């Protein structure tokens, strides 16, 4: 950085000083962001290689399967004898093809979904799609999200709502919903048979807190400091990208809030989010 | 029967590869963790062993090194997502791999590489068999020579049998 303290005039007026400080802060923030993106890009290249690898390969296989199937439909078109049709059907191993086609497509879709998730996460990291902060009702956000993840939750967890009186807070609700979703899905994954997820909301002075507590398997103390790192995951490949929490962390930070985790292995995990009701620097226009 | 071992921690990679090898008539065994692949090395003789590079618990170089000790004749190939130089050098020097396959791949690359690995394995095996055969025959020859020498020593002249015009053995009553 060009501005080192040594060439900083000592008798700057306070205004000038604070402007410079702000500038330095912005630069710091930017370089942190760049470092995060760099780290992300290296990880992303590897994460994307696998799904792209098998989807690409499957497409080549699909080409062969289709040309086999076309042999059959062409024969139908030519009105070949039933005998001939059976012969072709046998030679292309139709039964196998049918079954494997379904698997091939399902696996390929899964691969593309993974790439999509990673790209979406990248976008959120780089904040290319800037949305506006607006007043929103967090309880509504929670309910919407519960609907979305209902499938993941319903067989495993009973959801207990311990809601306080919350004022609307200034936020980007779509992003907070993402955070809520990540926490709920993680909680559901942590529950091995069946268990409980408690969602607690409170209003305290100029901020609100949200808690997500589960009775799942908990987090190893050695892992606790790493769960917010990009690509940190204990889930098998293909199941978790390890981006959920790092993304959530970024979103909460962007909202000038904090997210923390406490866990007792074998008993459960508690994620706590603290969010200010107002955003610093936001003009009150509502 | 030609046995092929494929190891990658991602099941979808394995099924995609298996599809490409379907028509070759090989027995293809796939594994998502190194441990069970190592178990398989105990019971099955493989012609070709293909392993992913980046895997949790045990990386591909370590696994292939292990496979090399267990089944030195099997031809080793490595699947790798990134062309990191150091990892390639390690793989070549420590695991003596035959080919690198990149992710993502072209179907013909995989097929051609594994086919030529199978060929190489067979040629190596044949070579070894021929060599054994030559050695065995050499041993036999030497044994016969020694036997002849012994006979000659005990009965001088016995190994130099003379024949007359019509091929019958001429017995000279020396004594
Ligand atoms: N509620 C929880 N209980 C136990 N472990 C958790 C919980 N939430 C997170 N973790 C641990 O933190 C890791 C990182 O979580 P994160 O949401 O970032 O990624 P992921 O769930 O593994 O993958 P993704 O969310 O990208 O599909 C998880 O793999 C898990 O080990
Ligand atoms: Mg998650």
Q: In what range is the share of β-strand residues of chain B? A: 5-15%
For the residues shown, what is the average pLDDT of chain A?
Answer: 84
List the total number of helices of chain A.
Answer: 7
Which ions and ligands are bound to the chains? Answer: adenosine-5'-triphosphate, magnesium ion
Q: What is the spatial order of strands in the main beta sheet of chain B? A: 2-1-3-4-5
Largest protein-protein interface: A-B, 22 and 20 residues
Q: Radius of gyration of chain B, Cα only, in angstroms?
A: 27 Å
- What is the mean predicted local confidence, pLDDT of chain B? 90
Structure description:
The complex is a heterodimer of chains A (286) and B (175). The model of chain A is unreliable at 1-6 (pLDDT under 50). Chain A contains 7 helices and 7 strands. With 286 residues, chain A is of the alpha+beta class. With 175 residues, chain B is α/β, with parallel strands linked by helices. Chain B has one domain (3-126): Response regulator (Rossmann fold). Helix content of chain B is 51%, strand content 14%. Chain B is built from 5 helices and 5 strands, in the order βαβαβαβαβα. Chain B has helices at residues 11-20, 34-43, 60-70, 85-95, 107-154; strands at 3-7, 27-31, 48-52, 75-80, 99-102. Chain B has a 5-stranded parallel beta sheet, with helices on both faces. In chain B, helix 2 (34-43) runs parallel beside helix 3 and helix 3 (60-70) packs parallel to helix 4. The radius of gyration of chain B is 27 Å and the shape is elongated. Classes of the chains: A alpha+beta (286), B alpha/beta (175). The structure holds adenosine-5'-triphosphate and magnesium ion (MG). Residues 182, 185-186, 240, 244 of chain A line the site of magnesium ion (MG). Chain B: This is Response regulatory domain-containing protein. Chain B: Keywords: Coiled coil, Phosphoprotein. Chain B: The modification 4-aspartylphosphate is found at residue 52.
């Amino acid at each position: 950085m060009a501005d080192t303290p040594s060439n900083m005039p000592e008798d700057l007026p306070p205004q000038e000083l604070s402007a410079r400080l702000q500038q330095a802060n912005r630069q710091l923030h930017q370089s942190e962001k760049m470092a995060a993106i760099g780290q992300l890009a290296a990880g992303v290249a590897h994460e994307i290689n696998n799904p792209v690898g098998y989807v690409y390969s499957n497409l080549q296989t699909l080409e062969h399967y289709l040309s086999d199937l076309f042999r059959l439909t062409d024969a139908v078109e030519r009105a070949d004898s039933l005998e001939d049709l059976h012969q072709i059907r046998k030679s292309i191993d139709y039964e196998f093809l049918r079954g494997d086609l379904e698997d091939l497509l399902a696996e390929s879709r899964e691969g593309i979904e993974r790439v999509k998730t990673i790209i979406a996460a990248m976008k959120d990291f780089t904040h290319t799609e800037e949305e506006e902060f607006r007043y929103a009702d967090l309880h509504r956000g929670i309910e919407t999200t519960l609907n979305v993840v209902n499938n993941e939750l319903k067989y495993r967890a009973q959801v207990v709502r311990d809601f306080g009186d919350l004022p609307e807070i200034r936020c980007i609700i779509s992003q907070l919903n993402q955070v809520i979703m990540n926490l709920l899905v993680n909680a559901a994954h942590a529950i091995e048979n069946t268990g409980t997820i408690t969602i607690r909301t409170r209003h305290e002075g100029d901020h609100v807190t949200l808690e997500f507590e589960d009775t799942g398997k908990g987090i190893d103390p050695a892992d606790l400091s790493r769960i917010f790192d990009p690509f940190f995951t204990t889930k098998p490949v293909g199941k978790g990208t390890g981006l959920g929490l790092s993304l959530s962390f970024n979103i909460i930070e962007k909202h000038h809030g904090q997210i923390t985790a406490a866990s007792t292995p074998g008993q459960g995990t508690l994620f706590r989010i603290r969010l200010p009701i107002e955003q610093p620097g936001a003009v009150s226009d509502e | 029967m030609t046995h092929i071992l494929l190891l990658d921690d991602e099941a979808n990679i394995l099924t995609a590869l298996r599809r490409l090898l379907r028509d070759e008539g090989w027995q293809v065994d796939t594994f998502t963790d190194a441990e069970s692949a190592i178990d398989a090395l105990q019971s099955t003789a493989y012609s070709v062993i293909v392993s992913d590079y980046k895997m949790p618990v045990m990386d591909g170089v370590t696994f292939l090194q292990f496979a090399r000790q267990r089944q030195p004749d099997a031809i080793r190939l490595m699947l790798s997502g990134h062309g990191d130089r150091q990892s390639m050098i390690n793989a070549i020097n420590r695991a003596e791999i035959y080919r690198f396959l990149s992710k993502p791949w072209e179907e013909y690359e995989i097929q051609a590489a594994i086919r030529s690995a199978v060929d190489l394995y067979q040629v190596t095996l044949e070579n070894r068999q021929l060599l054994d055969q030559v050695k065995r025959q050499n041993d036999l020859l030497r044994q016969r020579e020694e036997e002849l020498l012994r006979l000659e020593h005990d009965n001088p002249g016995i190994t130099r049998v003379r024949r007359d015009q019509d091929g019958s053995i001429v017995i000279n009553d020396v004594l």
